[in-house]
């Protein structure tokens, strides 16, 4: 199972438990991860969003590091683009200001990453080769296998993985990648005849007359005072 598939299982299992961050990418296109929706926002919320959208948290070097990390976590494949293609770095930038509690662990984690790369390779993370970057990432990406001295890096990478997965799989691109289509109207004309025959069953006349009349599927059902189904 590849990294993208692991993240799909992570997010599908975690949404029910609230493990991942609950704020997703709000976007108007796959390339723009954060916008200001006019519908459903109070004036106070719109003012808040406008204020933090006008601010900049990450430095240029930090932003570049975030982009590299996001695409390590969710790279492009034959099905869809990478986390950066989906606008996830913009989402993370937004979250740093919308949820300031993230600022210290993320900025501290970036400092840890650069210090670790400097100790090993004499360069900061963005200046390292791809292979050198991955040597560090492999040491912090698997908590069960990480050594104790990597604990700070593990915590940072866990947070980055959660932010990236949340941003990607709540973006238009990520939702398409999951294949999620949402609730859609359909038509149900009963259990297939061959299945009923296999089990020696069949519908009675009343069920066919009342419940499986496709031409009446848009009518609202109603019941009389005795609990009998009637048509409106």
What can you tell me about this protein's structure?
The longest helix has 19 residues, at 103-121. The relative contact order is 0.12. The protein is 50% helix and 3% strand. It has helices at 3-14, 43-54, 60-73, 88-98, 103-121, 130-140, 151-169, 172-178, 193-198, 205-210, and strands at 221-223, 229-231. The protein has two domains: 3-178, no CATH class; 193-231, no CATH class. It has a two-stranded antiparallel sheet. It is elongated and about 80 Å long. It is an all-alpha fold. It has ten helices and two strands.
How are the SSEs ordered, and which strands pair?
Layout: H1 3-14, H2 43-54, H3 60-73, H4 88-98, H5 103-121, H6 130-140, H7 151-169, H8 172-178, H9 193-198, H10 205-210, E1 221-223, E2 229-231
Antiparallel strand pairs: 1-2
Helix pairs in contact: 3-4, 4-7, 5-7
List key phrases describing it.
50% helix, 10 helices, 232 residues, single chain, 2 domains, mainly alpha
Q: Can you give me a brief rundown of this structure?
A:
Helix content is 50%, strand content 3%. It contains ten helices and two strands.
For the record, the count of structural domains works out to 2
Task: Tell how many strands the DSSP assignment holds.
Answer: 2
Mean pLDDT: 83
Give me the Rg, rounded.
25 Å
Strand sequence of the main sheet, in spatial order? 1-2
Strand-residue fraction? under 5%
Order of helices and strands: HHHHHHHHHHEE
Q: How many DSSP helices?
A: 10
């Amino acid at each position: 199972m590849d990294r993208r598939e692991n993240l799909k299982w992570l997010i599908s299992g975690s949404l029910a438990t609230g493990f991942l961050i609950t704020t997703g990418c709000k976007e108007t296109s796959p390339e723009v991860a954060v916008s200001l929706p006019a519908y459903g926002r109070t004036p106070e919320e719109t003012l808040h969003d406008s204020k933090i959208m006008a601010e900049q948290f990450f430095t240029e070097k930090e932003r570049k590091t975030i982009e590299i990390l996001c695409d390590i976590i969710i790279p492009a494949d034959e099905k869809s683009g990478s986390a950066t293609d989906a606008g996830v770095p913009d989402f993370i930038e937004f979250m740093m200001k919308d949820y300031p509690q993230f600022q210290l662990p993320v900025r501290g984690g970036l400092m840890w990453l650069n210090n670790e790369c400097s100790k090993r390779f004499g360069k900061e993370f963005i200046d390292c080769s791809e292979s050198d970057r991955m040597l560090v990432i492999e040491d912090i990406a698997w908590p069960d296998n990480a050594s104790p001295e990597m604990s700070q890096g593990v915590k940072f990478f866990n947070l980055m993985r959660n932010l990236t997965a949340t941003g990607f799989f709540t973006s238009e691109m990520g939702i398409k990648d999951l294949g999620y289509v949402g609730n859609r109207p359909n038509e149900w004309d009963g259990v297939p005849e061959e299945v009923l025959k296999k089990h020696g069953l069949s519908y009675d006349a009343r069920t066919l007359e009342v419940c499986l009349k496709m031409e009446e599927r848009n009518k609202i059902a109603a019941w009389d005072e005795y609990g009998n189904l009637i048509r409106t």
